[in-house]
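Notes from the 1:1 (GR / supervisor)

We went over the backlog. Supervisor wanted to see one worked example end to end before approving the batch request, so GR pasted a single chain during the call. The sequence is below; no edits were made to it. Supervisor asked that the structure be written out right there so they could see what the output format looks like.
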Amino acid sequence: MTTENDAPADEHGGPWLTSGELDSWLSVVRLMTRLPWAIDAQLQRDADLSMVEYMALAMLSEAAGRTLRMSTLAENTSTSLSRLSHMVKRLESRGYVRREPDPADGRFTNAILLPAGMAKLESAAPAHVAFVRRLVVDNLSGERLRRLGQDAERILGRIDSPAR
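Structure output shown during the call:
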């Protein structure tokens, strides 16, 4: 007798996804694709910022001295150092950030949030938070939102673990 858990094995010896697992996985894939697009579109429309630009400004605003090493900012925004460098250059040209050598170790470069960047973040935040609330937060109970966050952290832990 075959159950849903007795799915055929693939060439790597692992079982194929069951119908229910596949449906859930495809929902996650659509969410991973469409949510960043929707957030990016809202930020572009309302604040003339991309999602990654907003994230970088927000992370700098929370950092001590509103300063982070570029390498740390790249990691925290899930962006390559090269892509982040181009983005920070654009933010610099708009007067939102500046780069300078890290005084503790000149081999590194720091990104520093400037007052105009903080003002831009503060003006963008209300509409952005309202949008995120409408799309995600208000659609889930407090418990489901907490569990979604925990599940996301568990998956991120797998992604970030050295034994991938």
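Supervisor's comment: The two ends are 34 Å apart (CA to CA).
Batch request approved.
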